[in-house]
Amino acid sequence: MLSNEAFLKNVSWLNRLKLRVSYGQVGNDNFGSSNGLYQWMSLYGSAVNGGEAAYYKVQNENPELKWETNSSLNIGLETRLFNRVNLSFEYYNKHSDDLLFKFIQPLSAGATDSSTGLSTVWRNIGDVSNKGWEFSADGDIIRNREWEWNVGLNLSKVKNKIGKLPDKDREEGITNGDFQKFKEGHSIYEFWLYQYAGVDQMTGRSVYLPDFNAYYIAGEDGKTPVNGEESTEGKNPIPTDSWVDINGQYYTGDPRYARKDWSGSSLPKINGSVTTSLPLERPGSVRPNDFQLRFQSLRPALSDSDIGRRTFIDSRFTECMDSNARRHDAHIAQPSRSIGYSASESGCNDQWI
């Protein structure tokens, strides 16, 4: 507590000044299986083959396997001024090393998954970092025996970056479902999407930019390139009913033939909120009844021109409209506002406008 030091004790307008620094490491052995401490060993399963007892390998050994290591650095500064204003700033850097991946091996190592026929082994490959800062400030505008009006501001920023992937995935990355791709130097929250070009005014259909590295525009026979000169080696044709020529530019209406590329992140550049509270002490009440007003703005991850790609719902609205709704990793394009009168801790009791 810096404010307890001799050189700050006589500063009348400084009520509290606290500096905190922490660093730590924790391990993680979550392999997503029931093998637990035997995850590094060769394991076998039993079966019946041709009426005879048989054993087959279900897990390849890796004696070098170890836990993930999560390192966390946190530096914070807190202060209270004039017995009325609170300020707080915090910087954090969390780094995860030796990430656990299920690595696909050549089939000569022996299939370990009977459903896919793949041979896999757990390895420590890859690292990822999360760093950012948080700032908050609030002050008592009015404070007396009957009224206490507080106004606050909160800002935060986080940056996520993949530092290392398996050697075989460094160039192309790892595709995760239909909307994500993990690649060195990028964030795990970035979207890997079909490149939407707009709407065909003649048909009302959505059109996309074709992937000319894998496909070519085919003529009426379904094979010959429309320009007659384009190289088709290693490419598949886009049939005539799946492409359109708009002002000399070719587009496709079928996302299967569309090009994918990085398309923004679900992490806002800045996440912030402005809050105000006005507790009113009433005789016989268990706790003050709070009148709260909150304005929160989340910068959209995609630009306004990408409105055709916005298919995600902000979880704050989902949770308050449906208590059983699942949480979505998502964003909204417009700011959210709430105003309400509440005597409970749940923000979902507020009346949304």
Can you give keywords for this protein?
single chain, mainly beta, 353 residues, two-stranded antiparallel ribbon, flat, 1 helix, nine-stranded antiparallel sheet
Task: Please characterize this protein's 3D structure.
By secondary structure, this protein is mostly beta strands. Helices cover 2% and strands 48% of the residues. The chain is built from one helix and 23 strands. Strands 1-4-5-8-9-20-21-22-23 form a nine-stranded antiparallel β-sheet, with no helix packed on it. A two-stranded antiparallel sheet has the order 2-3. The longest helix has 7 residues, at 315-321. The protein is flat, with a radius of gyration of 29 Å. Mean pLDDT is 76; it is low at 282-287 and 297-353.
Summarize the helices and strands and which ones pair or pack.
Blueprint: E1 14-28, E2 43-49, E3 52-59, E4 68-81, E5 85-97, E6 100-105, E7 119-124, E8 127-143, E9 148-164, E10 174-176, E11 180-182, E12 190-194, E13 196-199, E14 206-208, E15 215-217, E16 236-238, E17 243-246, E18 249-252, E19 260-265, E20 271-280, E21 289-298, H1 315-321, E22 336-342, E23 351-352
The dominant shape is: flat
Through-space gap between termini: 43 Å
Order of helices and strands: EEEEEEEEEEEEEEEEEEEEEHEE
Overall SS class: mainly beta
Main beta-sheet strand count, sense and barrel state: 9 strands, antiparallel
- Overall mean pLDDT stands at 76
Please indicate the percent range of residues in DSSP E strands (runs of 2 or more): over 45%
Number of helices: 1
Spatial sequence of strands, sheet with the most strands: 1-4-5-8-9-20-21-22-23
| Rg of Cα set | 29 Å
Query: Helix content range of the residues, please?
Result: under 10%
Low-pLDDT segments, ≥5 res: 282-287, 297-353
Beta strands, count: 23
